[in-house]
Amino acid sequence: MCYADTVTNDDGTATAFCYCGWSADHATPEAADTDAERHQTAADAAESALAA
Ligand SMILES: [Zn+2]
């Protein structure tokens, strides 16, 4: 299971990242937040599909 989080950078951009190694840069913290949520949900769905 993935656990994604975000960090806001000094220049106002934000980076979404996950302990699995995934990361993505975004122009706004809101966009990073959305992508972190999307990554986590997608990873969970993939895991459920494997388990089913
Ligand atoms: Zn992940």
Number of domains: 1
Strand element count:
3
> H/E element string?
EEEH
Strand content: 25-35%
Task: Compose a concise summary of this entry.
The protein is 44% helix and 27% strand. The chain is α+β, with helices and mostly antiparallel strands and 52 residues long.
Q: Keywords, please?
A:
alpha+beta, elongated, binds zinc ion
Question: Overview of this structure, please?
Answer:
This protein has 52 residues and is of the alpha+beta class. The protein has one domain (4-51). It has 1 helix and 3 strands; from the N terminus they run E-E-E-H. The chain has one helix at 29-51; strands spanning 4-8, 14-18, 23-26. A 3-stranded antiparallel sheet has the order 1-2-3, covered by helices on one side. The longest helix has 23 residues, at 29-51. The relative contact order is 0.24. Bound molecules: zinc ion. Zinc ion is lined by residues 2, 4, 18, 20, 22, 39, 43. Zinc ion (ZN) is lined by residues 2, 4, 18, 20, 22, 39, 43. Residues 31-52 are annotated as: Disordered. Residues 42-52 have a biased composition (Low complexity).
